[in-house]
Design a protein that fits this description.
5-stranded antiparallel β-sheet; 23% helix; Immunoglobulin-like; 17 strands; alpha+beta
Length: 245
């Protein structure tokens, strides 16, 4: 079993061999093109080149390097960071993860590819990162897509009643939650608030009965979506204050 240091050295040599092979391939290609342009018989002569020729030696060296690079490193234990939960946009959501193996940063496209599923609607999205080039295997990651947030458009207080209006969310919504608390002090927090649930996704206003003795209330709203047996919530809106008339 390889130690971490041995694994890093192995990956380093594979990367070095891969780069060297690409360089040799370019040299051989350029040499062949130049030879063909300057001497049409070059292409035929090249096929007849003896094993001792320099060109064939380069080809043999490149073949050896390619063979050494064919021992691929698994990406299954890669460190993947930078994956974030996202708000619904109506489009397929992608990530820009940072993937590394044994301390080496990998590049999407040359070292790995990403295949997404369930990454459009609210819920749990899946991404499969598959090794490419000197890397093999795959690793699966998930992220959540939550509903698009809304905002309070107006609040009106009249005695012991408070009417709240908000901007309607048209897609990926099951209902709304309104949080409100008496703002006895400037630092009133949402965690101390009472929550009222609006199950009608088409509603855009709610009148609630409150304690009229409090001078000021602070109110928030958020969207929720039920899917796959789970409930997903948007971020809370900015708070809006309602003052007693």
């Amino acid at each position: 079993m390889y130690s971490m240091t041995e694994e890093k050295e192995s990956i380093f040599m594979k990367r070095k061999n891969q780069k060297t092979f690409k360089l040799l391939a370019m040299v051989l290609s350029v040499a062949f093109i130049v030879g063909t342009l300057t001497n049409p018989a070059y292409a035929y002569q090249e096929k007849q080149t003896s094993p001792e020729s320099g060109h064939t030696a380069l080809a043999a060296a490149s073949s050896s390097l390619l063979s050494a690079s064919s021992v691929r490193t698994s990406i299954a234990t890669a460190t993947v960071t930078g994956i974030k939960d996202k708000a619904w946009t109506g489009k397929r959501i992608r990530q820009k993860p940072k993937v590394s193996v044994s301390g080496y940063s990998l590049t999407e496209g040359s070292d790995y590819t990403i295949k997404y599923s369930h990454n459009k609607n609210v819920g749990k999205a899946k991404m499969v990162i598959t090794g490419k080039g000197i890397y093999k295997g795959s690793i699966t990651k998930h992220f959540f897509i939550y509903p698009k947030a809304t905002k309070i458009t107006s609040i009106r207080r009249s005695g012991s009643k408070m009417t709240i209006k908000w901007k309607k969310v048209d897609h990926q919504v099951s209902g709304y939650q309104i949080a409100y608390t008496a703002a006895k002090r400037q630092g009133a927090k949402i965690r101390y608030a009472d929550i009222t649930e609006i199950k009608d996704r088409n509603r855009t206003s709610k009148t609630m009965r409150i304690t009229s003795t409090y001078v000021r209330y602070r109110v928030w709203i958020r969207v929720y979506k039920k899917t796959g047996g789970k409930t997903y919530y948007s971020e809370w809106s900015d708070s809006v204050e309602a003052w007693r008339d």
